[in-house]
UniProtKB/TrEMBL annotation:
Domain Ppx/GppA phosphatase C-terminal residue range list: 317-475
Protein name (database record): exopolyphosphatase
Family listed: Belongs to the GppA/Ppx family.
UniProt cross-references to SUPFAM superfamilies, sorted A to Z: Actin-like ATPase domain, HD-domain/PDEase-like
Transmembrane segments: none
Listed InterPro entries: ATPase_NBD, Exopolyphosphatase, GppA/Ppx_hydrolase, Ppx_GppA_C, Ppx_GppA_N
Catalytic reaction(s) noted: [phosphate](n) + H2O = [phosphate](n-1) + phosphate + H(+)
EC number: 3.6.1.11
Signal peptide: none
Domain of life: Bacteria
Length: 511
């Protein structure tokens, strides 16, 4: 089957990027190439509003180099979009003509409304956030949106970005205290001019390179043990700490900060102040990074063009289906184990055993889709592979803590291995939470043993109390010896978690 590749060129005010995607079996796009050029076209927009000849030459030479890279892929489609600097250039018609003549690209200039919309679309199609404010600060403009129930309610584009704020407020590369104070006052006034941004108490979702660098710095300072930037969450105190920390450094030290791109060292402070000022204005409940942004939003719109809506019905379900497809998981087996796990969970819950809450079932169900997925790589060390793959792979629709909990449940092997996986994150959980995750993992492992031959032999189970002990009757439709062997072997993990003895009774259904 031929692979389908798609490409997009994003002509920004600070950077230009070529991103090439491979369309997966499930229909989602996976990034396979990302080429960045720090063109800083905004610096070539003159006082008369024209993009200078030098600026146009930088644009053309960068696009030509991108074209050479793109031509090494059998592309289904190539899209070229431009944002604030080209949008604001008085000679944009000439620029479009030059681009077409020298590269053959039909460059589309996005309106400020379109730029804001595509950022919003990327966020709601790749995160679990249903209500929030997005902020995308580029070199020459800053787009903000407010969405509720995943629907866009408000959007606005401010005519300032990290480069223009630096030019307008800082006399040198690094600001004085007075300049930072003036910048903050200006930004607060700008944000407060939009009533719909005030005191929303919803997540603030950052998009773009400035937000990405901010998160990378935070993760490096904290020696954060999980992989991935997308859906990473920070607090107000984290933003304030990083801003103050960066402000104390000279340019030489700033350029060596782990997680900060050297080419962004002189504009990270304006970008950070934008996030912090907006956070305070909105009384945000947290700062979340979305690695998906404008480029992804453009393709999300095209991917959903025949659906009648630009929104994926369920972000997490899409991601789970992607995992099932990537690791060739047995859907029939998964569904049957889910059925057995559902019976066991709710019968324990109804009897008040294990301190289970109804909402715990959603976590069990989620982990059941990918339980022991590492078997795809190696059967003998499947538990280790399962944990590593899930803990270190971005899963759209799951925040980092949720992803970690799923990885711990889906990789459950025994108490010892569970503790090994948990150890780097032990302080993230209360003692009762650790016990609960272990219980849910042992429950899943037990239910998987009941379908060890993938024949759906055990059709249902019934739980009953025999004093302090538990009796589980398993009704089967055929020879059940392999399942009986595995279940007797695996029940000890559930017994330890519940602190109860479990007796198993296998019964063959009468035809």
């Amino acid at each position: 089957m031929a692979k389908s590749y798609y490409a997009i060129i994003d002509v920004g005010s600070n950077t230009m990027r070529l991103v090439i995607y491979l369309r997966e079996k499930g229909g989602r796009l996976r990034e396979v190439e990302n080429v960045k050029a720090v063109a800083r076209l905004r610096n070539h927009l003159m006082d008369d509003g024209l993009l200078s000849t030098e600026g146009i030459q930088i644009l053309l030479s960068t696009l030509k180099s991108f074209k050479e890279v793109a031509e090494s892929y059998p592309l289904e489609e190539m899209v070229c979009v431009a944002t604030a600097t080209i949008r604001q250039a008085q000679n944009q018609a000439e620029i479009i003509h030059q681009v077409s003549e020298h590269t053959g690209f039909d460059m589309r200039i996005l309106s400020d409304q379109e730029e804001a919309y595509y950022g919003y679309l990327a966020v709601v199609n790749s995160t679990p956030v249903t209500e929030g404010i997005t902020v995308d600060i580029g070199g020459g403009s800053t787009e903000v949106t407010y969405f509720k129930d995943r629907e866009l309610i408000e959007s606005h584009s401010f005519p300032f970005g990290a480069l223009t704020l630096k030019q307008d407020f800082f006399k040198k590369d690094l600001p004085t205290e007075e300049e930072m104070s003036d910048l903050r006052q200006y930004l607060v006034e700008q944000f407060q001019s939009l009533p719909w941004l005030k005191k929303k108490n919803v997540p603030l979702i950052g998009i773009g390179g400035g937000a990405r660098n901010l998160v990378q710095i935070d993760q490096n300072l904290k020696e954060y043990p999980l992989a991935g930037l997308h859906q990473y969450k920070m607090k107000d105190s984290d933003l304030a700490f990083i801003k103050n920390y960066l402000f104390t450094l000279n340019m030489k030290k700033l350029q060596k900060v782990e997680g900060l791109s050297k080419d962004r060292a002189d504009i990270i402070l304006p970008a950070t102040e934008v996030f912090h000022s907006l956070y305070d204005t909105a009384h945000a409940s947290g700062f979340i990074l979305s690695r998906k942004g404008l480029r992804d939003g453009v393709f999300f719109e095209q991917l959903t063009s025949d659906m009648g809506t630009a929104l994926f019905p369920n972000v997490l379900e899409e991601s789970i289906q992607e995992l099932i497809s990537d690791y060739e998981l047995n859907v029939k087996h998964i569904q049957h184990v889910q059925h057995l796990a559902h019976d066991l969970f709710h019968q324990l819950h109804d009897r008040g055993i294990g301190s289970l809450r109804k909402r715990d079932w959603q976590e069990v169900k989620r982990a059941s889709y990918v339980f022991n997925l590492g078997e795809y790589i190696d059967n003998e060390s499947s538990s280790q592979h399962t944990f590593y793959l899930l803990a270190n792979r971005t899963i759209d629709g799951l925040m980092h803590m949720e992803r970690l909990r799923m990885a711990l449940m889906a990789s459950f092997k025994n108490k010892t291995v569970f503790k090994q996986f948990l150890d780097p994150y032990k302080e993230w959980f209360l003692k009762d939470e650790r016990k609960k995750i272990r219980l849910l993992g042992s429950m899943l492992k037990f239910c998987y043993s009941l379908d060890s031959t993938r024949r759906q032999t055990v059709e249902k189970l019934e739980l009953s109390n025999d004093g302090e002990d538990l009796r589980v009757t398993l009704y089967c439709n055929g020879a059940y010896m392999p399942e009986e062997y595995q279940a007797e072997k695996q029940k000890k993990h559930l017994e330890k978690s519940l602190k109860k003895t479990i007796e198993l009774f296998f019964v063959k259904n009468k035809k």
